[in-house]
Amino acid sequence: MTKIKVIGAGLAGSEAAFYLAEHGFKVELYDIKPHAFTPAHKSADFGELVCSNSLKGRDPLSNACGLLKQEMRTIGSLTMEAAAYAEIPAGGALAVDRDKFAAFITDKLRSHPNIEIVSEEVKKIPESPCIVATGPLTCESLAEDIKGKFGGALHFYDASAPIVSRDSVDLTRAFFGDRYGKGGDDYLNCPLNKEEYEKFVYELVNAEKAVLHEFDKREIFEGCMPVEVMAARGAETLRFGPFKPVGLRDKDGNKFYAVLQLRKETADGEAYNLVGCQTNLKFGEQKRVFSLIPALANAEFLRYGVMHRNTYLNSPEILEADFSVKGEPLLFFAGQMTGVEGYVESAASGLLAAVHMARKLEGKPVIIPDQTTVCGALSAHISGVTDNFQPMNANFGILKPLEKTVRDKKQRYALLAERALESIKNFTIKTRE
What we know:
The chain is an alpha+beta fold. 32% of the residues lie in helices and 17% in strands. A hairpin with a 6-residue loop joins strand 12 (258-264) and strand 13.
């Protein structure tokens, strides 16, 4: 049996390798770890989460990313298994202990009898059958080979938020609780009054940024906007964004002017990340500016926020809806480099590429999930948009509209989700025939 090469053991590559191995195919999984690391990676484990530890909303009936997760569970997803194993409380979001999450994925891959791990850098696109899932920080040699073969790539910047020690947060100036009292005490809330908020925003906007070298700052992706760039858009922007006080009250029922929420990074709750505070400030400036928030005046920063370049293909010119290269049916790309944006979306693309690869190798026709599903809508996005192609997150707006107009958003989302789950169930049945 011909071995399938999967290049890259991030979320997309891990999903692809595991799905194919589970369906009886022999897989060679290539990754530079543990001998080398990209600028964003720290752990030797596969499936490492380099930015937030949140996989976004969990409810499939009200959140498009929650719906995508349920679609992936129906198909059979390693990422969703790992998330269930490493889950930590986060209200309406699905957050994980990132170390446990990556360790779970790594163990599943290393112990699978159909997967051979090859720890080396791949410098050129291998012969088919192959899935390239090397992510936004593809090593230079392979990136140049991809660029030469497909006429270049686009790129934008991605940013991560700082992480602080729980013990260093002033709990006399912070409180535990979720918005509107939903969930448990999953978030640690750091309120600011008007004067404190305005001083914080002024210093944030005027703080010294890290140098981005040769790339243009205008290429920052809206879905991962650095907090200082967001704040520069207007004094009230953060109060209607990550610092919104809606749904949070003090013990006397009074409203706050602004609130920064901290979310658990680890299951033991010893580390918290600053929700929505992705940043490109210099490390010293991060400590100075975020310490202006009263509850963080003496915060110990376990990790500072960083910004790095993400690279993605002009996929509509290169890829089919099954994530294979046009004219090369057994060469696939998966992950963020295809123009899907987000942890879950990236993993989903690897899962879909593997489903389609398996059917082709079995001599069966490819079945694309229809656009009533998030999986199908993302597949259509990477293969159908030709003008000003941009990365796409899961959202209800990309789904095929309902046949009848439903004005109530909550009801409309629920109907879209119910239709999607029925459709993905049928898709999964068909792909297993």
